[in-house]
Amino acid sequence: MTARLLDPNVLQVGAPDPELRTSPIVSENDDDFLLAKQRNPGAVACYFNSIAYDNNAYVQSGTYLLHCNYGLWLVAEEAQLT
User: Fold this and answer.
1) pLDDT digits over 8-62, tens only?
2) SS3 readout for 4-56
């Protein structure tokens, strides 16, 4: 499945709640990507506000489309606000 930002089939999850478990949200271009990847070896799910999502799931949080990649949320797309 290739999801797009504002796709009505993508679950809207709101903002991360700092009191709940949320997997790291990173960009592949982010310096912290490799470090975060090393901290989550072999993870098969991502968490967002303490809810588990399967690998390859997409969710939308605000202006970000997030893709679950083995325990990390990768920013798949970001809306450009003008």
Assistant:
1) 788 999 999 999 999 999 887 776 666 666 666 667 899 999 999 999 999 999 9
2) CCCCCCCEECCCCCCCCCCCCEECCCCCCHHHHHHHCCCCCEEEECCEEEECC
Query: Does the predicted TM-score (pTM) go above 0.85?
Result: no
Domain boundaries, the chain: 11-78
**What letter would DSSP give residue 78?**
E
Q: Which of 53, 82, 21 is nearest to 74 (CA)?
A: 53
